[in-house]
Design a protein that fits this description.
single chain; mainly alpha; 2 domains; two-stranded antiparallel ribbon
Length: 148
């Protein structure tokens, strides 16, 4: 797959366009503005950047559509976010609201090999018959004040 260098902010736009497009037939500038809690002119500038990188198609005042490459990157980013959130919530027992924000913060900076290791660890833990017991023991450990 073609590699495109993206800033964390632009990654957030791609992921948000991907998310919105999976829930709705169309993606508009105002949808992105609301989703990312940014002003419409910021969205317009970001969409122009995404267009110049070949990640979206957009006509003035029209819908925003991911290209094939944009779709693949959006799916990759969403998957990375979901894996990190699951790890934080299910393994580390972090509160869901905090975990979702943290996953958003760290997803941009992890090497893909590190994400692969997190995936492998989750798969290993889930395939282990002791997983539920291990998680419950960790939960008790945290409840007893060992959470630092």
């Amino acid at each position: 797959m073609k590699r495109v260098k993206l800033t964390p902010s632009i990654e957030d736009y791609v992921k948000s366009i991907y998310d919105i497009s999976k829930k709705s037939k169309v993606v508009r500038v105002k949808d992105l503005s609301r989703s990312l809690n940014v002003k419409m002119p910021s969205v317009v500038n970001a969409v122009k950047t995404l267009e110049s990188k070949g990640l979206v198609k957009h006509e003035n005042y029209g819908y925003i559509e991911l290209t094939h490459l944009g779709e693949r990157i959006g799916k990759e980013l969403k998957n990375k976010h979901d894996i990190l959130a699951e790890f934080l919530i299910k393994v580390l027992q972090v509160d869901q609201d905090i975990a979702l924000k943290d996953a958003c913060s760290i997803e941009h900076y992890l090497n893909p090999k590190t994400v692969d290791r997190v995936v492998s660890l989750l798969e290993f833990l889930k395939s282990n018959p002791e997983y539920s017991r291990w998680i419950e023991q960790f939960r008790l450990y945290l409840r007893e004040g060992k959470d630092g």
